[in-house]
Amino acid sequence: MPVARMLLDAGRGALIGTVEIIPGVSGGTVALIVGVYETLIDSAGHLARGVARAASDGVRGRGLTRAREEFAAVRWSVVLPVGFGMIAAVLAASAILAPIIEAEPVASRALFAGLILASLVVPIRMVGGRWRMREYAIAAVGAVAGFLLTSLPQVDPLEPPLPVVALAAAFAVCALVVPGVSGSFILLAVGMYAPTLAAVNERDLVYLGVFILGAMIGLGLFVSVLQWLLVHRRRVMLAMMTGLMLGSLRALWPWQEGGTVQPPGPDALPVLLLVLLGAAAVGGVLLIESAVLRRAARRLESGAAG
Question: Is 12 helix (H, G, I), strand (E, B) or coil?
Fold first, then answer.
């Protein structure tokens, strides 16, 4: 494998890993921008199915033939350097973000809220065409569900139960399938964001091992289902996702005390500016994505014409 290509893919992975730490900025969107989205999603599916088949076929005495076929379909030449870059970036970004979030919770939630608000454009746009009454109704149901779920008591930020860690990871990893949806936001909405950052910074191998196991289970169980839904029930899926994201913004209301929403404080103006700053940041990423997609479409058209 050429060294230059490995370094390029590691750099792509570093970009994806950095934004995955920030709630509201989608690693899937950045993967799409840098041109590795389809390769990563396809390879992740093969990898998860390979692990599942190795476990099930091994227990049943069927051998590892099916598992080896799945592993052989993984684009290791891309996945390994991208994965290395992601891990390095996650470690670095976690060390920077964790103390900021702890010291400035109001400002952090305001910035993250702006990121999420702007990210709503992605699933809304992906629905395609004008929204019908059915999509609005589905989105409303999703918004109510998201609001209620984020109103539940959050887990203990110091020692979350390991089954909860695995479950949160299984759902968060599904966000990689849909550009514009942030896995970190899912963790934040269920109260698992700060514990996960702390586990990364403290090198808590038990927590991280359970988290990785949950992510692998999520890839194996949910990603294929989500991909099918995006093909066969696209409008319903994306409308529901839009509503869930909107309702879950309750978790990012800047003024909170122990998870209870408080009225705005005297710092309302600077907080609003941070919300606008977060929205502008995501808007810039989406503009870059649109430019990249337009350029790729023009290349395809010129190639077809030639």
Answer: helix
Tokens (6 digits) for 53: 């088949």
Instruction: Please tell me whether the overall predicted TM-score, pTM, comes out greater than 0.85 for this model.
Output: no
Residue entry with tokens 């089954």: 163
Cβ pair 240, 139 in contact under 8 A: yes
Q: Show Cβ contacts of residue 251 under 8 Å, excluding neighbours closer than 6 positions.
A: 150, 188, 189, 191
Torsion of CA 269, 275, 277, 279, to 10 degrees: -150
Extended strands (E) in the chain: 256-257, 260-261
d(CA 39, CA 6): 15
pLDDT band for position 272 (cuts 50, 70, 90): very high
Q: Are 157 and 191 in contact (CB under 8 A)?
A: yes
**For the segment 125-150, what is each residue's pLDDT rounded down to a tens digit?**
877 778 899 999 999 998 898 888 77
Residue 153 buriedness (CB in 10 A; 0-12 / 13-18 / 19+): exposed
- Total residues belonging to the chain: 306
Amino acid present at 276: L
In whole angstroms, give the CA distance from residue 232 to residue 165.
Answer: 31
What pLDDT does 269 receive?
92
